[in-house]
Amino acid sequence: MNESLSLTDLIAELKGLVLDAVEKSAPEGGLADDEPLFGPDARLDLDSLDALQVSMAIQQRYGVRMPDSKETRRALTSIAHLAAHLSAGRS
């Protein structure tokens, strides 16, 4: 993973990566860093297949495996959580 990427840049990159992986456009007003990606409050209306696609895109882009686990579900709760998860993994 690119060590020089700031958290702000990582979040911006992840927004694009997630939207590309699930083949959706950003919701009206954009995707907030801490808005839910899954569940009843999620504007993207993602499902388990989308989670798999996002996990595969993360593995391909960053070389980080996201096995199906509680930790992965927590990481995918929002873009901010995902960025923190990936940042923690590179230190």
From TrEMBL:
It comes from the Bacteria. InterPro entries: ACP-like_sf, PP-bd_ACP. Signal peptide: none annotated. Residues 9-90 form the Carrier domain. SUPFAM superfamilies: ACP-like. This is Phosphopantetheine-binding protein. It comes from Variovorax rhizosphaerae. The lineage of its organism: Bacteria, Pseudomonadati, Pseudomonadota, Betaproteobacteria, Burkholderiales.
